[in-house]
Amino acid sequence: MPRATNIDRDGAIVAGLFGPIEAAGKTIILGVLDLSTHEIETPEMVAGRIRRALPFVRPERLIVAPDCGLKYLPRNVAFEKIKAMVEGANLVRSKIKDIGPAVAQA
């Protein structure tokens, strides 16, 4: 399995640690929303970020989450971002067979 240290908001693979984390049976919480802006991600954008992680971690070891807290965003923006996150996770989930409960929680 390829190795990576972390995946930033844009899903860019930065360096090499996911292999050992995966081998140790750890679960990865993947931040898929950019909370530094009020711009609402599309579900397709979120799905793309999730897909970029899949070569590095099995779906059952992946939990999709915002990239941090939503405290400083207006309520309507936070709601729409979370909605896009859920819809993006559902897009990916619909294409993956044999997903485990970790992805199903997204």
Structural description of this entry:
By secondary structure, this protein is mainly alpha-helical. It has one domain. It is built from four helices and two strands; from the N terminus they run H-E-H-E-H-H. A two-stranded parallel ribbon has the order 1-2. Helix 2 links the parallel strand 1 and strand 2. It is globular, with a radius of gyration of 13 Å. The protein starts with 17 loop residues before the first helix and ends with a helix.
SSE inventory with pairings:
Elements: H1 18-23, E1 28-31, H2 43-53, E2 62-65, H3 75-95, H4 101-104
Parallel strand pairs: 1-2
Defining key terms:
106 residues; mainly alpha; two-stranded parallel ribbon; 2 strands; globular
Q: Quote the beta fraction.
A: 5-15%
Query: How many distinct helices?
Result: 4
Mean pLDDT: 79
Tell me the helix content. Answer: 25-40%
- Count up the domains: 1
Radius of gyration: 13 Å
Low-confidence stretches: 1-5, 9-15, 101-106
Globular, elongated, flat, extended or rod-shaped: what is the shape?
globular
The largest sheet, given as strand count, sense and whether it forms a barrel, is: 2 strands, parallel
Q: How many β-strand runs?
A: 2
Give the SSE string.
HEHEHH
What distance lies between the first and last C-alpha atoms, to the nearest angstrom?
23 Å
Spatial strand arrangement across the major sheet: 1-2
Classification by helices and strands = mainly alpha
